[in-house]
Amino acid sequence: MNTTISIFGCGWLGKPLAINLVNKGFLVKGSTTSKEKLKELQSNKIQPFLCTLKELPTNILEFLNAEILIVNIPSKNVAGFKNLISFIEKSNIQKVLFISSTSVFASAKEIITETTTLKNCPLKEIEELFQNNTHFKTTILRFAGLLGYQRKPGNWFKNGKIIPNPEGVVNMIHQDDCIEIIKQVIVQNCWNNTFNACADTHPKRRDFYTKSFLEVGREKPIFNENDEKSMKIIGNEKIKTTLKFKFKYPNLMQLPNQ
């Protein structure tokens, strides 16, 4: 019998992930907050559910009738996640993949790894809610800034907005690499683990955004030259070693202009 995977949050990352998993032979359920997108999910062979964290639907246990749950929503609603987990405990879910963010880390002089101390913030608390629960196995994936396809960095700073910290560095990851990492966690059965996921290179913000602006036909960006330099470099050695993962887009200055 094929493994059933439920994806809480079929947006920019969740929808192409769901389609990819369907094409690999998984049975996939997907949630959306938009009634208009239900038919779109269904047309891609994804069983659709209308669902928000704030108001879980009455058929939430039907959505959670799966072996694996991928939680892929940007909410920092701690109470909402506690409520969701109470339903997961009553369900057939055996494994949870929680999509987190490298924003849980503060700036630091040293390279940030999975053992680096986290900031005290709602996302840290939410990670711990999943990690400390003994009803299911959890893997935490902390993605750096997301880019690719519709998410073009050259479009991020509009209306003359000045870009801060030009001498700082960029930590980002392409959508294709995000999807492949998620698949490899599932296929390699790599649970009860935590990974930081970021491209290999960390170009200066000045260089990266100048190139990104030119790629979308905009004039060179304006930087805050008086902004204090803060540094954050996300290391990715653990994910490359543990999953034997090779990034499709390791160099952020050589991304395709999609």
UniProtKB/TrEMBL annotation:
Gene3D superfamilies to which the protein is assigned, alphabetical: NAD(P)-binding Rossmann-like Domain
Pfam family of the protein (one): NAD_binding_2
Species, as recorded: Lutibacter holmesii
All copies of domain 6-phosphogluconate dehydrogenase NADP-binding, residue ranges: 5-115
Top-level taxonomic group: Bacteria
Protein name: NAD(P)-binding domain-containing protein
